[in-house]
Amino acid sequence: MAHQARKRFGQHFLVDTGIIYSIIRAIEPHPIDQVIEIGPGLGAMTKPLLGSLDELSVVELDRDLVKRWQSQNISTLKIFEADALKFDFLEWAKLAKEKIANLVEPRVKIVGNLPYNISSPLLFHLMSAADYVDEQVFMLQAEVIERMVASHGDSEYGRLSVMLQSRYHMENVLHVPPEAFDPPPKVDSAVVKMIPRTDLKLTPEEYEALETIVSMAFAQRRKVLRNNLSSVKEQLDLPDETLALRAQDIAVDDYITWARKLAHQ
Q1: Hey, how many other C-beta atoms are within 10 angstroms of the C-beta on 211?
Q2: Alpha carbons 84 and 209: distance in angstroms, whole number
Q3: pLDDT tens, residue by residue, 82-126
Q4: Are 7 and 29 within 8 A, CB to CB?
Q5: What letter would DSSP give residue 246?
């Protein structure tokens, strides 16, 4: 019996073979890699991944799809029936790192066609595992990826850009049209590659300060920082020319510098 896409799960199943294999090339699976896929769906990406990996884990919330995969008795497939927003990716990634600790150049990867209705909170949830992950490759709404990779000064640059760029190097690697799916979504999609940054490490206090500053700075995009950061501007000791700028004019590394200053006062 054919599985019907469920709107409450944000299901749109990828059916374009050319797009599927372009995404697999972006993932670059090697047999010894440890990979977990979020939302395997009907297996558009899962089946080619299974053909390239010694083992694959998947996280699926839809019980009917879980039963569908379980019934296939695939020995190299580990199925987690769970809500990706509640799944412990940190624990999974730690165990994955331990498995491959003595192997040559294996990688830990999180991949998937993410449900568009929960994409932003899911991206933030995944940040907890970034210390143990080598790459993330996701399909998302194209508009969201444009915001993720935007540079300061761009109209799309905002809180999502700063918070994710503080943790990852990101690249928009592929455009995916609506007709590549069944049912077709009403928006264009894209594929992003995310590689956790190793050039800086924020402490929990610094990250909390970054969240605070960025939320305040972008609270009212049209207003200048003198207004939006009024409660912390003296602690940050920012010059007048900076306070006259808007939030989208400030580079990610400057926000990080401010967060460290605020956290250590």
Answers
A1: 16
A2: 26
A3: 999 999 999 999 999 999 998 888 999 999 999 888 999 999 999
A4: no
A5: B
Both structure tokens of 34? 């440890």
Peptide bond into 115 cis (omega under 30): no
d(CA 240, CA 259): 18
Residue burial 125-142, b: 16+ Cβ < 10 Å; e: rest: bbbebbebbbbbbbbbbb
Tokens of 1: 């019996």
Alpha-carbon separation of residue 212 from 65, 139, 141, 155, 199 (angstroms) = 39, 29, 26, 21, 22
Q: How many C-beta atoms lie closer than 10 Å to residue 41's C-beta?
A: 23
From first CA to last CA, the distance across the chain in angstroms is 62
**Rounded to a whole number, what is the largest CA-CA distance in the chain?**
66
Q: Does the model's pTM come out above 0.70?
A: yes
Q: Cα–Cα distance between 30 and 196 in angstroms, integer?
A: 19
